[in-house]
Automatic annotation (TrEMBL):
Organism of origin: Clostridium intestinale DSM 6191
Domain Gfo/Idh/MocA-like oxidoreductase N-terminal: from-to ranges: 1-117
Name used for this protein in its record: Predicted dehydrogenase
GO molecular function, one term: nucleotide binding
One family name in Pfam for this protein: GFO_IDH_MocA
Amino acid sequence: MKIGILGTGFGAYHAQIYSKLKNIDSIIIWGRDEVKLRNIKNDINIETTTDIHDILDDPDISLIDICLPSSLHKEYAIEALKNGKHVFCETPVALTLEDAILMEQASKKYNKNIFVDMFIKFDGPYDTLYKFVKENKYGNLKALHLKRKTPPLWGSLGLDEITTKLMLHEFDFVTWLLGPSDDIISTSTQKDKDKAHVETIMNYENSFVEIQCSSMMPEYHPFTTSYEAVFENGTLEYLENGYSNRTEKSLKLFTDECQQEIELSEVDCYECAIKHVLECIEKDVPSKLNIDEAIISLETALKVKDLIS
């Protein structure tokens, strides 16, 4: 399979992943910065171009991986679909629900898939939680508390951006796990236009989800993700702290009978997502990274954005 990549930021990392996979015949990456392109070519020896039509118009390319600013996703995704390509798109799938729906409609019109990089579905601790809920081993899920907190590492994450750029990962997971919620409440505060703190509750028939997301952490605070899942007969607790020189992780199960540390394997969830996309294309099977699910989580993120505006 031949892959075309648009964008030399996160696209460079995607290129590294593709270059390690045996079922990839060739890779070409497009960008405007010739220095970045030279560095990528030197690092992983793939084809580069500054002419985007070298990718869009190439009949041998099966998948176009879009790692461009979200404001450009609709334009280039639809152009790729028109040219008979499947699309793998970074999150958020679009900045507006209208654009996302147009992308979905184009996918159906041209009979090609749009996959969206909801990588959290392949992250080990979240995959474990998903299985615990679906298998009902410890009874029904009664409450779920999720956190994502960061120091100023990722540019502007104020009230205008935080729900679609940072909190979106939790919405990806929760709506996959439990579906959309019709009863959402949210509150927020901010330090300035680039730093905000949001807390949201999503109510369901027999449970609720609380999501706390913050870009107001100080410089020396780790990048933190965590959850506490409260079941009828147990509690599953996950914590990850990412520092500049190390990452600390733990996943623990608590029941009336025991406390158990669950071993976490070192899995690259981005690589897993890409492998999943390629398998879905090769076998023509449904994907859990489909644009329909991405639209549900984007709609939730935009609803929360409206609540805190």
